[in-house]
Design goal:
The protein has 491 residues and is an alpha/beta fold. It is 56% helix and 11% strand. Helix 1 (8-31) crosses helix 12, helix 11 crosses helix 17 (457-478) and helix 13 (363-388) packs across helix 17 (457-478).
Amino acid sequence: MPTYGQNRKWEILPGALVWSTLILAIVLSFVAPIIPVVFIIVFDLYWFFRIVYFTIFLMLSWREYKQAIKHDWLADLKKQKDWNKLYHLVFLPTYKESVEIIRETLYSIAAASYSKEKMIIVLAGEGRDHAHFQKNAAIISQEFGKTFKKIIVTEHPVNLPNEIPGKGSNLNYSAGEVKKALESEFTDIPVEDIVVSSFDVDTAVHTSYFACLAFLYLTTPNPTHASYQPVVLFSNNIWTSRAPVRIAAFGTIFWLLAELARSDRLWTFSSHSMPWKMLLDVGFWQKDIVSEDSRIFLQAFLHYHGDYRVVPIFLPVSMDTVVGTNYWESLKALYKQQRRWAWGVEHFPVMVAAFQKDKLIPLNKKIKYLFNHIEGMYTWATAPILIFALGYLPLWVASGSDSAIIHAAPFTLEWIMRLAMGGAFLTAALSLTMLPPRPKTVKPTAWILMIIQWLLLPITFTVFGAAPAIDAQTRLMIGKYLGFNVTKKSR
């Protein structure tokens, strides 16, 4: 698969679209304000209908989620033929995390309603963290060695060729080591009967997650041509995180929740599951990119000529929000996390180049995936700025104009925004239903903050939504490629 710099014109395009829009919006506000005014009205209308569309799918997924967490998935699984033949291979890449973080994750996996004799845990550390990792690995192996079928410990060496240090290269190396272990110790397990879960090391799984995953794997047509995406919550420490961090976390939660209802356009994100056979077929995770969680889906999609999809799992896996030693450090960590997620724009030039060569992928799929990707990245970077800031610049410049459009625009935009804010109120209400129990160390008045924090929505979506997206697309455009930034895990 092409590496950075080999498809420069397609690397430039996303950032060029964003900067052209922002620059033209400013220039035309002074030169021909009627043009940006009309554009802003049309854009705001488009955004309003997009919010309505988003809200419908969000509610559908939320209903599925509330039903799924109450459902007895193990009972459904046991009705299937050979229901207990599957093995779960769980990768936990770690770098400088405390043993307490790793321990809590393994406690949640051990509490799952699925036989632990069918679970193999891969604790994948980094050579850059040798002494600390080996100490943690020894503790974890001693405490959980008899809980699961096996715990495999791998340590990713430093400075291997053609790599970017990070999660993708760690997973690539550890998967190679696991392949050797499986071929030598577990030769009786067919590769089609192994389901892989790639989790962030702070992931806490729902007790029915592995039973539900196994049920879906056994009942999905052609299951080795599908990945399995759960509801990703950032709620382990949400009661003690900063207000902008919480708003950004819920923004991500609701985006993915709405995407789960549209599985025909769904990509994998963060902690998720996939077939071991697919990983063998594609050569494991790509080791020289940043967004390995979504790239592994693209690798499979291209390898199978478009015959690959994502099956939604409406059960939660919960992780930590970003943290810092103080308020400012938390905000910096949030910005870097959002920029790393926005770096998913790196998939666009790869898709264009691959789609041009592959004649077997249906044209409608090519158009759909390219449009969804570029449109999503474009609106991520531009919508908050156009709606909350630049949208009012031409009105201010042309305030003395006699144009009927200029005079009517403030009233029109105000009503569009009022209607659109209904979506914000709905997400605020839904966020309260998805909070974990309030810790005893947190004051009851924190509930009030959980509600009024949504007043920060315009600022948060601009500073920690649009800004890091523009940053990421600009870096790709000028060839200043982003490295992997590890999100600090602390409670």
